[in-house]
Design brief:
The complex is a heterodimer of chains A (121) and B (111). Chain A has no helices and eleven strands. With 121 residues, chain A is mostly beta strands. Chain B contains no helices and nine strands. In chain B, the strands form two sheets. In chain B, strands 1, 3, 4, 7, 8 and 9 form a six-stranded mixed β-sheet that branches. Classes of the chains: A mainly beta (121), B mainly beta (111). The interface between A and B is medium-sized, with 19 and 26 residues.
Chain lengths: 121, 111
Amino acid sequence: QVQLQESGPGLVKPSQTLSLTCTVSGGSISSGDYYWNWIRQPAGKGLEWIGHISTSGSTNYIPSLKSRVTISADMSKNQFSLKLSSVTAADTAMYYCARQTGGNIVTFDYWGQGTRATVSS
Amino acid sequence: QPVLTQPPSVSGAPGQRVTISCTGSRSNIGAGHDVHWYQQLPGTAPRLLIDDKNNRPSGVPDRFSGSKSGTSASLAITGLQAEDEADYHCQSYDRSLSVWVFGGGTKLTVL
């Protein structure tokens, strides 16, 4: 059973960088036809896909955040991370990491429990 | 504004059938991209509920089914139960934006 667990500081000051880590257990982030994603959800709103990293290390980001986002992976720790720079209050949200399957049917099949990030001075 | 449009809320009595719509455009659902549905129980993370081919993960009852036509998709829930009270999100891919997109979510209330 694959499990994902987000971690990171809950409070970030405006203009600083939000850094979150997702630790994966029960499966390797460096094998299989999978993508490892970050998705966020502002309070009371819908889900927004931020970006992903593949098992080969290639990345893809939502264009609206591309200039501020970096997703990277540490294969030795079976973790992948999100860095979002120059944050504002609009970046306050619950952040989820999720596995995305490749192949013919591409779904987000495993999710972490989420970690709340608040941008405030 | 979400790329996929869902009603903010729907409701139904126990035992009834409800449907949740998900309206997109020619660059996502209308382009033939798959539509998947996720259930988010109160205070929890979303979980995959049903995929475009009506495959359900282990533990999801067959009371849940999906359909798609043109630029829209729907999730149907039959024999409504109190435990179905949750937010439901549709998801697809948008070829114009080159991003994975979600609906704004629909809150289901069981009366």
